[in-house]
Each structure stands twice: as C-alpha cells, then as structure tokens.
Amino acid sequence: MIPILVLVIVVVIAVAALFIGLAYSVSTKLLKPPRRIGEWSPRDLGYDYEELSINVGDIVLKGWLISRGGSKTVIALHGYTSSKYDEGYMKPVIKMLADNGFNVVALDLRGHGDSGGEYTTLGYLEVDDMVKVIDWLTENKGSFVESIGVIGYSMGGAIAIMLAARDKRVKAVVADSPYMDIIASGKRWIKRLKEPLRSILLALYPLIVYFTRKRSRVDIEALKIHRYADKISQPILLVCGRNDDLVYVDEIEKFYDLVKKYSREASIWVTSSRHVSTIKDYPGEYESKVIGFFKRWL
C-alpha cells in the first residue's frame, strides 16, 4: 500500500506542478503580448509627421505626431496586443482625424509596438504614462495642444476613461469598446480558445489572475471602470457592439447610466458590431459621430 500511496502523491504533486507552471506561463503571455510592428506610417496616408520619443519614468514611449496647424489635438490609444500600426481601427481613425484638421498623436503603449517596457499593466500604469505624455506635449508642443481630446479602443478606451477622470486637461473622450472589468473580459478572452485548452485555462483562471496581479503589481480594483464615472465631467461618447464577445453592451450601458449624471454631455452609440469593429462596419456614420463630437467639444 505504501508504494501505491507514494505513487499517488507523486502523481498529484506532478499534476499540480504542471498546472501551476501552465498558469504562470499564461500570466507571462498576458503581461508580454506579441509586439505588433507595421510597415506603414502617416506618410502613407498623405501626411508628414514627427517621430515621438517620450520619457515616462524609466521607459520611452514611441509614437507619431501629425500636425495640421491648429491647436486641437486628439490622442489615439490602441488596445491590448495591438499598436499604433493597427490597420483595423488605428489607421482609419488617424486618417479620419487628420483629414478633418485635427492634430493627431498616436502612441504605442508600454509593452506594445515600438515602446519600451517589459510588461503591459493592462491600463494601470498606462494612465500615469498618459498624464506624463500630456505634460510633455504641453511643455514641448504647447501651441498644438490648447485643446486635447482622447479616443481609445478596448484597453485604450478604458485608459481614456481613467485619464479623463484624473486629468482635466482632457476636454473630450471617445471610448470604443472599453473594458469595464478587466477580470471579466480576460475570462471571455480565454473562452475564444478551443477545447480542451479553454476548459483547462478557465479552471486555472483564478491562479492566472493571481500570478498576473502579483508580477505586475496591478491593483485590480483600480481597473474596474465603473468607479470612475463620478469623476468625469468632460463630454464622453461611448461606442459598443451587440456582437462584442469581450465587452458586453449591458456593462457599458451601466457605465453610461452612471456617467451621464456627472458628465457635461454623455452619449452612447450601440451598433451590431463585434469588438472595436464599428469603425469598419459603419465608416461613414462613425466619422460623422466622432468628428462631430470632437468639433463640438474641442
């Protein structure tokens, strides 16, 4: 009996070690997404631009500045695993904004694209980074940034909301498919995987979250976006899709119901699109709504 018991114990320990190792490995992939580097630049859209290198603490953020000669500037923020090179939403929104006379700042967030940083923190430190970016723009490009707007997609949308809550230099915000609860959206991301990996990772999800939180030192409570609603006085436009499998419409509608009590002007546009796909599915209406919003409030 003793050899059998020992064997069982060894097997249990080995399986537990395997699962712990898998959870740790997944947390590493979450914190270090593949860097998406593209081969296009704003010049391909017909615009001259300036390469930006902005120090935010111990890392450097890389980006582009398109100057259109005025004082109204929109900062465009990509989502998790993406970059300023994204051709699904970043490329069209950069062109849309520049075509309509706005200066455009498009940056790679920490741990993404060309920017520094070993890890992403899923929005936690990125908000601090964006405050420092606005500090830098104000100091070095003052005539361009007398009126600042922000448009963000997915994680970038959540960052835009948190930034508006903290920094009143942001005059208007568009948040497209912003996560409302990073834990819930992360679980839905796993549900996109095929079996049996999906079921295994869902079972390990609490451990994955634990490793990710400990290694990144992220305060998960700070990434629950509803808590920022009462701190946003600026105009805000929320965009979401009924077929979004990462951020549910009812979550964003709940946030809208909260923020409209405090915002000078809050509006929500619900489409039939999937995650961050409204700009592709409804390009004409998207331009009309987004450009009209920024022209009104910047």
Structure write-up:
The chain has 298 residues and is α/β, with parallel strands linked by helices. It has two domains: 1-31 and 182-222, no CATH class; 36-180 and 224-297, Rossmann fold (3-Layer(aba) Sandwich). The chain contains nine helices and eight strands. The protein has an eight-stranded mixed sheet, with helices on both faces. Helix 1 (2-31) crosses helix 6 and helix 3 (124-140) packs across helix 4. 42% of the residues are buried.
Give the tags.
298 residues; alpha/beta; Rossmann fold; eight-stranded mixed sheet; 9 helices; 8 strands; elongated
Tell me briefly what this model is.
This protein has 298 residues and is an alpha/beta fold. The chain has helices spanning 2-31, 90-99, 124-140, 155-166, 182-190, 197-216, 249-259, 278-281, 283-297, and strands spanning 50-56, 59-66, 72-77, 103-107, 147-153, 170-176, 236-241, 266-271. It is elongated.
Uncertain runs are none
CATH architecture assignment name of the largest domain? 3-Layer(aba) Sandwich
The proportion of residues forming helix, as a percent range, comes to 40-55%
Please state the structural category: alpha/beta
Rg for CA atoms? 21 Å
Report the CATH C-level class of the largest domain.
Alpha Beta
State mean pLDDT (0 to 100 scale).
Answer: 94
Count the domains. Answer: 2
- Quick one: overall form? elongated
How is the biggest beta sheet arranged? Answer: 8 strands, mixed
Strand content: 15-25%
Distance between the termini: 77 Å
Instruction: Give the SSE string.
Output: HEEEHEHEHEHHEHEHH
